[in-house]
Design goal:
Distance between the termini: 14 Å
Number of helices: 4
CATH topology: Rossmann fold
Strand order of the largest sheet: 4-3-2-1-5
Helix content: 25-40%
Shape: globular
Structural class: alpha/beta
CATH class: Alpha Beta
Number of domains: 1
Length: about 140
């Protein structure tokens, strides 16, 4: 990951995967980024199991966007589902694009396709606290 571009992923992961990435978030001097690309998952991250927007999510996403982050909404259910959820909750303008989660990546620099910055919103005090943590640790 370079200083100029990078990305963080906010979502929920299976227990084993969360633990594997958790140690990477404890680096003593995490890289700071400008124009960070932040990919946000839909189900159980942005909305609960009933489709209700999680408390503070909209304000936190606005804070990330105001700090210069580029926000993308993705889901294993596809881009149309992402757009539908964003429209339902008045979030469309916050996101630059909507996408299905990738299953296979093809890239000339494969090492740049993985990020050490993975956050599980369920392990945070709140969405706003998560946004402030990301900005404090990673956004220049």
């Amino acid at each position: 990951m370079t200083v100029a571009t990078g990305f963080a992923i906010i979502g929920c992961h299976a227990e084993g995967r969360s633990r594997r990435f958790a140690d990477r978030n404890r680096w003593p001097y995490p890289p700071r980024m400008k124009n960070a690309n932040v990919f946000v998952d839909v189900d159980l991250t942005l909305v609960d199991a009933d489709g209700k927007l999680l408390d503070g999510a909209k304000e936190a996403l606005q804070r990330l966007k105001d700090a210069g982050c580029h926000l993308f909404l993705w889901s294993s259910c596809g881009s149309e589902y992402c757009q539908k959820v964003a429209r339902l909750h008045g979030l469309t303008e916050l996101f630059e694009a909507f996408s299905a989660k990738p299953d296979i990546l093809i890239d000339d620099m494969p090492a740049t396709c993985v990020t050490q910055f993975v956050y599980d919103v369920r392990n945070e005090r709140s969405w706003p606290a998560l946004a402030e943590r990301i900005i404090a640790k990673h956004i220049d």
